[in-house]
Specification:
TIM Barrel; two-stranded antiparallel ribbon; globular; binds NADP nicotinamide-adenine-dinucleotide phosphate; Aldo-Keto_reductase; oxidoreductase; Oxidoreductase; oxidoreductase activity; NADP_OxRdtase_dom
Length: 302
């Protein structure tokens, strides 16, 4: 894998690295959820290969990222799985590549998701990820939960994943969509290397505290929807504040790049996984890892 820039384009190393459990990854990664939206698998394969050419070594996925219907509500024809697109594009996998997947949900035939976090369901999902990715172990598995105040213990589900870790099927564990109390509970059971939550400069800022706690504990905080924000699955937020526009102008950058740069400035343990099916957006997102914001700019944005 390249360690510097590719041609004239900024590489993923510009954002620096983070020690993710027993692996080191570049802080600018890639989210694969949107790859199933394009009916042409070749387009997704081009984006994945370009990401790796540009030095991305941390890719987020899930076996339940599947067309048609489903999370993004698009697509016809045979189902396209993000995990299988990753396998087609990148297998045999570069040794440095960390593929993070998540469990706790299952997709039905239409790609619609439902919660599925019983121990047997989690074991089946791990096996499905192994099969679709074509691996004999998973680098990193996040337990994705649904929050239900008062009755959302992660103990049983995380315990089931810890057993799979002990059995060698999983190397490292993380959590997704959690609060600090979930993190406390899981850390009693097994090491947690990352927390993946929805977070951006104008969305879910109640997580500021969790970002800080993760930093103190040496745990990566991986924001999703760092571009989409409150628009979630509908796509990138186009509603940028005057501050975002002003900082973007000052850096000759796009508002989306400033959103990503802001996320990376929330701590050395924050890892970005922007999602795109567009190679130009991919290059722009990776280049955002080179943007250095001043304290004044951060204060204005924050
Ligand atoms: N743990 C969880 O529960 C969870 C939930 C959702 C997602 N995730 C993960 O997080 C990753 C990121 O989330 P996401 O992909 O939904 O949202 P995102 O990265 O916040 O935003 C993606 C959206 O922004 C657009 N975009 C990307 N780069 C752009 C650029 N440079 N300029 C303009 N528009 C740009 C994309 O459209 P184009 O394709 O046109 O670029 C897409 O509509 C996902 O891929 C997935 O791996 C995790």
């Amino acid at each position: 894998m390249p360690t510097h820039t590719s041609g004239h384009e900024t590489g993923a190393d510009a954002a620096g690295t983070w020690r993710l459990g027993d692996r080191t990854v570049r802080r600018m990664g890639f989210g694969s959820m949107r790859l199933t939206a394009d009916p042409d698998p070749a387009a997704a394969i081009r984006v994945l290969r370009r990401a790796v050419e540009l030095g991305v070594d941390h890719i987020d996925t899930a076996a339940f990222y599947v067309s048609p219907g489903g999370t993004l509500g698009v697509g016809t024809g045979p189902a396209r799985y993000a995990t299988e697109l990753i396998r087609t594009a990148l297998s045999p996998y570069p040794a440095e590549l960390v593929i993070a997947t998540k469990v706790g949900f299952a997709a039905d035939g239409d790609g619609d998701l439902s919660e599925a976090n019983g121990p047997a369901q989690l074991r089946a999902q791990v096996e499905e990820n192994l099969r679709r990715l074509g691996r004999d172990h998973l680098d990193l598995v996040n337990l994705r939960i649904v929050r239900r105040p008062g009755r959302d213990s992660v103990a049983e589900a995380f315990g089931a994943l810890a057993e799979l870790r002990d059995a060698g099927k999983i190397r490292q564990l993380g959590l997704s969509n959690v609060r600090v109390d979930h993190l406390d509970e899981a850390q009693q059971i097994a090491p947690v290397v990352c927390v993946q939550n929805s977070y951006s400069l104008d969305h879910n800022r109640t997580d500021d505290e969790l970002v800080r706690v993760c930093g103190e504990r040496g745990i990566a905080y991986v924001p999703f929807f760092s571009l989409a924000g409150s628009r979630r699955e509908s796509g990138a937020n186009q509603d940028h504040s005057d501050a975002v526009h002003a900082v973007a102008r000052a850096h000759r950058a796009t508002p989306q790049q400033i959103r990503l740069a802001w996320a990376l400035h929330q701590g050395p343990h924050v890892l970005a996984i922007p999602g795109t099916g567009n190679v130009d957006h991919l290059a722009a997102n990776i280049a955002a890892g080179a943007i250095r914001l001043t304290a004044t700019e951060l204060a204005t944005l924050g």
